[in-house]
Description:
Chain A contains nine helices and seven strands; from the N terminus they run E-E-H-E-E-E-E-E-H-H-H-H-H-H-H-H. A five-stranded mixed β-sheet of chain A has the order 2-1-5-3-4. Chain A has a two-stranded antiparallel sheet with strand order 6-7. By secondary structure, chain A is α+β, with helices and mostly antiparallel strands. Helices cover 36% and strands 18% of the residues of chain B. The longest helix of chain B has 25 residues, at 516-540. Chains A and B meet through helix 2 and helix 3 of A and helix 3, helix 4, helix 10 and helix 15 of B.
Amino acid sequence: MSDQERTLKFHILRYNPQIKGDTPTMKTYEIKEAPGMTIFIALNEIREKHDPSIQFDFICRAGICGSCAMVINGQPDLACRTLTSKFPEGEIKLLPLPGFELIGDLSVNTGKFMRQMSERVESWIHDKYAENVDLCKLEERMDPDTADEIYELERCVECGCCVSACATKRMREGFLSAVGFMRLARYALDPRDKRSDEEFYEIMGDDDGVFGCMTLLGCQDYCPKDLPHQTQIAYLRRKMAMIN
Amino acid sequence: MKVIYTDSLVIGGGLAGLRIAIASRQRGYDTIVLSLMPAKRSHSAAAQGGMQASLGASIKGEGDNEEVHFEDTVKGSDWGCDQDVARMFVNTAPKAIRQLTAWGVPWSRVKKGDRQVVINGKKVTITEKNEAHGLITSRDFGGTKKWRTCFTSDGTGHTMLYAMDNKAIELGIPVHERKEAIALIHEDGVCHGAVVRDLVTGELIAYVAKATTIATGGYGRLYAVSTNAVISEGMGTAIALETGVATLGNMEAVQFHPTAIVPVGILTTEGCRGDGGLLLDKDGYRFMPDYEPDKKELASRDVVSRRMTEHIRKGKGVSSRYGDHLWLDITLLGKEHINKNLREVKEICEYFLGIDPVKEYIPVRPTQHYSMGGVRTKATGESPNLKGLFSAGEAACWDMHGFNRLGGNSVAETVVAGMIVGEYVADHCAENDLNIDTKLIEKFVRREENKIIKLLNRDVGENPFELRKEMQDIMMDKVGIFRNGADLAKAVEELKVLNQRAKNIALRNRISTSNPELVEAIRVPKMIRLAQCVAYGAMLRTESRGAHAREDFPERNDKEWLKRTLTTWSSEDNDLPEVSYEPLDIMRMEMPPGSRGYGVDNTVHHPDTEKRVAEIEEIKTAHPDADRFEMQELLNPIEIPEKFKGKNERIGRGFK
């Protein structure tokens, strides 16, 4: 942390679709940098001291909940854990995540997209006996390593960075995207989910699914949780290609 | 006027709220969840270390059962909890965790054979049994006799919330996102739903329901530095208070977590210490054994937080530009363990502190973390004063935590209360008709509408962001870890002034649609009133119990204070809440008050304690053959929904 105080320039896209006739513009705000300052801290200061109308989403401010993804100097990332000291020039340009419905300024509707994704991939354990599990009895055993591997894939926070970094998604509106593939890979790995490969094929075996991916792997590059998108997409493809 | 009807309205999309919605739907009732954001972003996701349930599969959990979990929970609460509720909770927790297993949580599992762990600063090899292989494992946490905290690495809350929300999606439960309940609709002691503001369009919508459940989490953001998410502002609790009818319980009971990072207050899990991490001072000296030779770093949270503060006051803190702090040392756990079981902690250290916890110490200090207080409910989760209003999770004072919550008991409460209260919510839906005069709905919607119009029309007035900051600083400085009469009296007076000023808020951004300043202006006056409940309750309670530590009244005083604080706010014109008390009946306690085993026991005992102890001895002598289940039935018979009554199986002991 540097003790030298510098002035930061934030260039922020401003647009409120709720106001008739409003047009998107870039506005610049100057604030003094504080030690350890994150974009979370900076944006709140801008809202409180300069412009109370500015919209953005933070919940946990600890890199856990995935609310605050935005495009920071051209790259999608979680704003809450991005330190301003990362930018030596002191100029920070913030845009809302592309690929999602805009709510206003830096706030986008990831919730709607993710709910639809979850419904599409049926993001839950498929086991017709699960509801009849006797809760008094010992739980079903699981291989400890398998449990750890599932957790690896479940660390996704649905922030949307992979969707916004995906060129295929830009070309194909209905493309499932890495977040959906990761979810499918997670359930395909889980022995509790009884879906067959054929059933998974029904969900992702087309060009809007895993065969549409152009393997540009923006998802891999920009995932804030460093999830193994490349490996998992390859794994799903191979698995799906084996179905005839 | 837009009106939406449902059977079971749930305000809050975290673990507790979703679980209640699921129970409603599974029993065949229509349900809607209201959430400020996508449900998967709720603060439940931030729970790292784990969920307590006495499964006893790991070798260090062997011998664990409901009795041991009950004792730990009651002791942890400093005997301030409702023992009926604590009982319902510990008996149901194993079922809750097993249900979540079926719903997809990838709990970390027992691996048979030797593994190296760190206990009391030393490497020790423990051997897991073959027959436990593949069952849910557990780690050590503060204030527990056994290793009882089940976990998924240190992303436990995340995996629980994802499984829960996915289950809700499977059941087709609608979550109405970016909706904020700003008032409850009620008349003649019956709650009929809520007035809800759409945070995008600004539209006011009446949600009318047979049962309304508040599951909006805690009120940590009343404090300037808190581990809580920025949405943990106590809004559900506040709208219950504003009915003037519903009571809040134990609002002064606020927990400070020992290890949040400095300065931003983000949590590092208790699992760090549970797994063997140590607290060190400026000289690199491990000080906790000097204060608590028995439990050391793994004393209850309130105790560790106070000891750390005492040690800092002795000049042993590490000074920094953000004030003094101490060190959390997890370097001794090794890279492999940190990468696997403390990876969220590692990420937080890397991103926010720029350090590698495998090699470097983490700067920590006690920070506001949990609200034991909240909407007072009966054991069924329903408000005793406002029929049809339910509450669960951190928002509620169901009261299994009393004056201090054990680590790992919070996410456990959310899902257990969700299960139990969910059944009572469904019962309520079965037994009641939706019967409401539309004029009543209109009255409440118009009232809120007028408040907003007034706010938007005022030309000159107070800045809501500044009011919040002043409130947060008062709470930090005067209603913190150690409290005293003089500071608390000052806090109460200063908050009174803020409450008056908050009636005169004016906005710079005067639009009624998506407007963060308007959101702030609606919330801040509510938050100030909650802060008044906390400060005033703390001032009146002239004893120390659990997290409520009075320097001027250091003893726990069962004789005068074994009672729950109840708070109402009957009129908007009032300057202060009304406070009354509800005694805890020792003669009905399964576990009469005793010592928690920390520091010097200076408890002023209640005369009933001795009586009850003798009575329990008599009951035990009269039933020499009673097993632990029969004994519990004799000492603490509880009501529990039929479907959760069965005994819990454990490895090596069956259902015994």
